[in-house]
Amino acid sequence: MLTKPRPIRLKGRSFLALSLTPELPFEDWLAGLDDLAARSAGFFLRRPVVLDVDGLDIDKADLRKLVEDLNSRNVRVMGIEGARPSLLGPDMPPAMSDGRPASDFEPPDEGEAGEKQDDAAAEPVVAARPAPTQALASLVVTEPVRSGQSLFFPEGDVTIVGSVASGAEIVAGGSIHVYGTLRGRAMAGTAGNGCARIFCRKLEAELIAIDGFYLTAEDMEPDLRGRAVQAWLEGHALKTGILG
Length: 244
Hints:
Blueprint: E1 18-20, H1 26-39, E2 48-52, H2 60-72, E3 76-81, E4 95-96, H3 112-119, E5 125-127, E6 138-141, E7 150-153, E8 157-160, E9 169-172, E10 176-182, E11 185-188, E12 198-203, E13 207-210, E14 213-216, E15 229-234, E16 237-242
């Protein structure tokens, strides 16, 4: 007796990816990417990436070489945005469009911190969403964010009552407040909010970023380490200062 096959279930689901926007000449842009990777070891590890080439005057060979150069750096391109159909082929990442701004992560680990992130690779990504009865403006996390965890809240501000461990990551569409020690990565204003700020009671961060502009641990002033600090944008420069 033949049995009726079960229907195939198709579901829609959103995932957060980094969006890279290369600039010409690619050699110079890749050199800058190598510098970021060197100072923030493991930043691109296991991260899906969308390549945004909108407005670039390139041909198919240029785009293919760029993807190959990124692959050789362990940057996995899951899709290409803004490319003419003639630039793509069956052996290239697929075309993507209509991505909602959320992160850019920003994006990084450094030295020992990068090793800790690798050790904690099994930790889950926390896609933070408030309960239906809550406003979509802010999220309060009452537990420490552990090494290897990533917390994404593109809707607004994030407040961490505890600390953020090395190898952990906070990504917020608005501002980030950490009432403990910030040892991991904090990326605020990821939906294009240049007015967002980052506050922490004790700065030991691997990376901080606002609206795509970032500072790694090497870039931060030494006298800020271990202090209560805020960060904000002035034009295209990320500024930091001691609170109080």
